[in-house]
Amino acid sequence: MENETKKDIMFKRMKEKKKEVKIVRRIVLAIVLIVLIGGGITAYSGYKYVKSALQPVDEKSEEIIPVKVEIGSNLDSIAALLEKNEIIKDARIFKYYAKFNNESDFQAGDYGLTKSMTFDELIESLKSGKVYREPIFSMTIPEGRTLEEIAARVEEKTSYTSKEFLDLVTNPDFIDQMIAKYPNILTEDIKGPDLRHALEGYLFPATYAYYEENPSLESIVDQMLSKTANTMAQYTDQLAEEQKSVHWLLTFASLLEEEATADTDREMIASVFNNRMEKKMPLQTDPTVLYALGEHKDRVLYDDLEIDHPYNTYKIQGLPPGPISNPGTQSIEAVLNAPESENFYFLADKEGVNHFSKTYDEHLAKIEQYLR
């Protein structure tokens, strides 16, 4: 009986051991399958990434991006430079592509490249020392221009009239289309009843390149809005953190663009405006009066300050309803990087140098000192 019991026990243990082996085999098989599947997914993801990185960053972009390749630059540094300027998506992929094709004899120099260029076009440009794709014409829109001034520039450089341009950018249907296309920058804010023009301030100042003789008017405006959208993308997180909108930023920055006579003064002028708004003081900036008047004047008169208009910051508190021109990057960043100060006043002397004051008495004294 005792022997039978021992046999039973041994038999039972053998069955348990076989069962454990089966379980272990299943677990190992499951792990192998998971690894294979994971490896396949990783490989496929890697394939998709590389395939995407080999394509132009933006096939429709016509913006010329200046790039300076220094003497002595190697493939690594050139690839990093192209990625930094967002002309390629991944420096490593470009570097491997160039090496695989035995391309390395690149020339130093100043280049005008675009995000729509392929790797082969970029390599050809860098080897020849010149732009591979040369635009048929280009158009520069400077900082601080109103829609009317941009319209005049478009008339000068294209076959379209100023009126045709203004008719398009003020067309409600076109504006709705652009709001739908660029919801990150264009919101219902641009439809405010007091705004003179919905797209005022949203056509970014830059040099635009065109690769066809007669680009459509819609594509010209779209390109400028695209540039604004790309520029604003880098400030998204900060605006969200400060609970501010793109419309607020462009409106504020447009005042700096018109007021600043020197780049170094923009941040301090922004500080003055911040202080005045915090104290519920009117901004009292002359460019808003000129915008309200709809004309350029060398000197703003006291009678002009009395105009009853939603853009007249001598009459209203805070910012005007919208931008008064198209601000550049320096003015935009000055708004976001304005320092804290105790200044509430500033004036520009006869040489255009700005002087800041903490009190109204100081401000009056500086008027006597610099303007009388």
UniProtKB/TrEMBL annotation:
It catalyses: a peptidoglycan chain = a peptidoglycan chain with N-acetyl-1,6-anhydromuramyl-[peptide] at the reducing end + a peptidoglycan chain with N-acetylglucosamine at the non-reducing end. Its EC number is 4.2.2.29. GO terms for biological process: cell wall organization; peptidoglycan biosynthetic process. CDD domains: MltG_like. One of its GO terms (molecular function) is lytic endotransglycosylase activity. The record marks 259 as: Important for catalytic activity. Keywords: Cell membrane, Cell wall biogenesis/degradation, Lyase, Membrane, Transmembrane, Transmembrane helix. InterPro entries: MLTG-like. Functions as a peptidoglycan terminase that cleaves nascent peptidoglycan strands endolytically to terminate their elongation. Belongs to the transglycosylase MltG family. This is Endolytic murein transglycosylase.
